[in-house]
């Protein structure tokens, strides 16, 4: 079966996912798109022979759409995801699932009322080969109990519109999701402190930020978020256990030796390149689940809810001079499996 996908939002990542669905993943075709910017939607639709529909509700309910991809702006996600659940169609929603915990819970409740999982959230790091190898090592128990995690999330720079809360909402949210999954543990509190700020930042931006999370079992996670580090896109993660540690590998890259540069290995500059393989695998697995009528196995609506509660706690801490803020979540329903 070829899965006919309708795409809501044909901006930067929407276009990248349309390319992926069309050129990389087998078994999928993009049959319909919509965007507030009708000219942009028409231009993108023409590249893949899709229909342009007037809005998200029509797209979700189109008989030519089997599954929905939401790549519009975050505050609009909840409406489109709820429409897809009401239509009984699988929906892949880019992060965030919704911008408020209340909206995430409405989605969780709608999905539970539907009776089976329809929603997958776009936390692509779970599909990265390096993180998957870390997960295997941790699951095998080779390291003993995990005690600490040290992470860094560095971007060379960010656009002017990026503000201090986005360090948690837009950037750290990737670690928040992948660490809940890696450790199979829930985050219960967040604290954000700010070291000396880089002079390369915009005046309105607190950068870098150091985030400290604690989990139910007492693991401490420290995460440096530095979004104007200048030198590259650099993602580091090291889990330290009682008997050893496991570290996220950098993607393979050649080492060049010259008199001028000494030993040199290029530093990646772009998250789209760093996580290209993760995005491809994420969509291959999502399309495979839709094609076979199976429930998606990627990040769930509950994971989307948890991520929003934890990022809210981090933003609250940032805005209250680094107080420790608890991440108050509802109990996890059996529908979404055991512990996170
Ligand atoms: N997983 C990741 O690493 C990752 C990376 C980048 C962006 N994202 C997420 O993807 C989403 C889109 O980001 P982007 O960078 O592509 O933004 P963008 O501004 O480039 O594109 C968004 C598009 O959606 C359209 N749009 C907005 N609301 C709409 C609505 N209700 N109906 C139809 N069209 C609508 C806009 O006109 C725009 O063309 C965001 O939620 C962002 O957080 C995820
Ligand atoms: O939207 C992007 C994207 O999610 C990247 O993966 C992250 O590194 C950036 O900080 C963020 O702004």
Automatic annotation (TrEMBL):
Residues 135-324 form the Gfo/Idh/MocA-like oxidoreductase C-terminal domain. Gene3D superfamilies: Dihydrodipicolinate Reductase, domain 2, NAD(P)-binding Rossmann-like Domain. InterPro entries: Gfo-Idh-MocA_inositol_DH, Gfo/Idh/MocA-like_OxRdtase_C, Gfo/Idh/MocA-like_OxRdtase_N, MI/DCI_dehydrogenase, NAD(P)-bd_dom_sf. Residues 3-123 form the Gfo/Idh/MocA-like oxidoreductase N-terminal domain. It catalyses: myo-inositol + NAD(+) = scyllo-inosose + NADH + H(+). Keywords: NAD, Oxidoreductase. Its EC number is 1.1.1.18. GO terms for molecular function: inositol 2-dehydrogenase (NAD+) activity; nucleotide binding. It comes from the Bacteria. Pfam families: GFO_IDH_MocA, GFO_IDH_MocA_C. Coiled coil: none annotated. GO terms for biological process: inositol catabolic process. Involved in the oxidation of myo-inositol (MI) to 2-keto-myo-inositol (2KMI or 2-inosose). Belongs to the Gfo/Idh/MocA family. PANTHER family: INOSITOL 2-DEHYDROGENASE, PTHR43593. Homotetramer. This is Inositol 2-dehydrogenase. The lineage of its organism: Bacteria, Bacillati, Actinomycetota, Actinomycetes, Kitasatosporales. The gene is iolG.
């Amino acid at each position: 079966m070829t899965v006919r996908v309708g795409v809501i939002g044909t901006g930067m990542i929407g276009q990248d996912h349309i390319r992926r669905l069309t050129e990389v993943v087998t078994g999928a075709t993009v049959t319909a798109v919509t965007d507030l910017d009708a000219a942009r939607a028409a231009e993108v639709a023409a590249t893949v022979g899709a229909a342009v529909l007037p809005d998200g509700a029509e797209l979700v309910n189109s008989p030519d759409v089997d599954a929905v991809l939401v790549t519009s702006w975050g505050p609009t996600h909840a409406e489109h995801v709820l429409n897809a659940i009401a239509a009984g169609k699988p929906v892949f929603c880019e992060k965030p699932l919704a911008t408020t915990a209340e909206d995430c819970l409405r989605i969780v409740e709608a999905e539970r009322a539907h009776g089976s999982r329809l929603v997958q959230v776009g936390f692509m790091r779970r599909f990265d080969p390096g993180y998957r190898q870390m997960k295997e090592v941790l699951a095998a128990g080779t390291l003993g109990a995990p005690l600490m995690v040290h992470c860094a999330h560095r971007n060379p720079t960010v656009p002017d519109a990026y503000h201090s809360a986005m360090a948690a909402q837009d950037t750290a949210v990737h670690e928040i999701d992948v660490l809940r999954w890696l450790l199979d543990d829930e985050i219960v509190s967040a604290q954000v402190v700010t070291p000396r700020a880089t002079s390369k930042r915009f005046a309105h931006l607190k950068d870098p930020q150091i985030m400290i999370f604690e989990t139910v079992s007492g693991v401490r996670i420290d995460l440096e978020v530095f979004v104007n580090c200048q030198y590259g896109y650099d993602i580091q993660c090291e889990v330290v256990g009682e008997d050893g540690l496991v570290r996220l590998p950098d993607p393979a890259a050649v080492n060049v030796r010259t008199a001028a540069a000494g030993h040199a290995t290029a530093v990646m500059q772009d998250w789209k390149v760093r996580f290209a393989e993760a995005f491809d695998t994420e969509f291959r697995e999502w399309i495979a689940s839709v094609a076979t009528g199976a429930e998606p196995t990627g990040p769930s609506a509950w994971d989307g809810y948890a991520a929003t509660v934890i990022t809210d706690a981090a933003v609250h801490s940032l805005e209250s001079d680094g107080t420790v803020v608890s991440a108050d979540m509802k109990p996890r329903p059996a529908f979404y499996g055991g512990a996170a």
